[in-house]
Design goal:
Layout (H helix, E strand, L loop, with lengths): L2 E4 L5 H11 L3 E4 L3 H8 L5 E2 L7 E4 L4 E3 L2 E3 L1 H13 L4 E4 L7 H8 L5 E3 L18 E5 L2 H13 L4 E3 L3 H31 L4 H8 L19 H11 L4 H19 L7 H10 L8
Parallel strand pairs: 1-2, 1-4, 2-3, 4-7, 7-8, 9-10
Antiparallel strand pairs: 5-6, 8-9
């Protein structure tokens, strides 16, 4: 069984490393020679020329730019892979806008397609690496069986859902949910600062309740995934005022801390600055 991992960036690199431990005939592919050489240095076959494979794992970037969801790299990889092997199983691990996989299956006449979004987190790769529970949706029963066989062989536990679209949305909703949590914390922190109340002490207090897990508020919502994924979800479902409000909250928060950084005036702010000095960054 030949496996090709397409896209050797932050996600594709750990993926190809893991896959190559299980499947001897594994190749990494990327248009970046630098990315290819980084994989080769780890003793794994890689190239800027795409090879024929039985399974293609697509882990390239997707974007939200110029006001729309950009899935162009996904389509380009799908087109190239199916040109080499029309019967190959295509496994998307990238973030996809809802409906992307099905549209590509119809456009390029593929009957073997699955969506299994990554949940990899660089800051805690040992705990949240390639091997962790993942969501998988497939085009049909045959695709589902092939994809399950593949991921089971890799030792990756799978939660099966009924469609490609549910799997696509799961990644967007996960990251949007976290975005909303952080935006609420940002709003609350500004409220606390205006009223000379310690946000960190308040957060610690409310987090003692079993069903409360208030996020931290730091220097705005960053990372590669959170700001992008909430916009992609809005493209699909524009009539969600809560999401628009969260984006506005983060913009407002960023503007205020840029103008008047925390820790420069009241004692409560200095306490929060010190407490946050060792915080980990937000995940993606």
């Amino acid at each position: 069984m030949n496996v090709c991992v397409m896209g050797l960036g932050n996600i594709g690199l750990p993926v190809v490393q893991h896959v190559s431990k299980v499947y001897r005939q594994t190749q990494g592919y990327d248009i970046s020679l630098e990315a290819v050489n980084a994989v080769k240095k780890k003793g794994i076959d890689a190239s800027t020329e795409l090879a024929c494979a039985d399974i293609y794992v697509i882990a390239v970037n997707t974007w939200h730019r110029n006001g729309y969801s950009d899935m162009s790299a996904i389509e380009d990889c799908t087109k190239q892979a199916l040109k080499l092997n029309p019967d190959a199983l295509i496994c998307f691990e990238s973030t996809l806008a809802k409906g992307t996989a099905r549209k590509l299956a119809e456009k390029y006449n593929s009957s073997n397609m699955a969506v299994c979004p990554h949940r990899w987190w660089k800051q805690e790769e040992d705990k949240y690496g390639v091997i962790q529970l993942r969501v998988l949706g497939a085009l049909n029963q045959e695709s589902q069986k092939k994809a399950l066989d593949f991921y089971n062989t890799l030792g990756i536990p799978i939660h099966v859902v009924s469609s490609l679209e549910i799997a696509e949305l799961s990644k967007l909703v996960e990251n949007t949910y976290y975005y909303l949590r952080i935006a609420y914390a940002e709003d609350l922190k500004l409220l606390c600062e205006d009223n000379r109340v310690s946000f960190e002490e308040l957060r610690e207090a409310v987090n003692t309740k079993w069903n409360v897990d208030m996020a931290e508020a730091r220097d705005g919502i960053g990372g590669e995934c959170l700001p992008k994924d909430i916009q992609i979800l809005i493209d699909t479902y524009p009539n969600m005022p809560l999401l628009h409000g969260a984006i506005s909250t983060d913009k407002n928060y960023r503007a205020k801390i840029a103008h008047n950084p925390f820790g420069s005036k009241p004692e409560t702010q200095q306490i929060e600055e010190n407490n946050n000095s060792n915080n980990k960054s937000h995940g993606t």
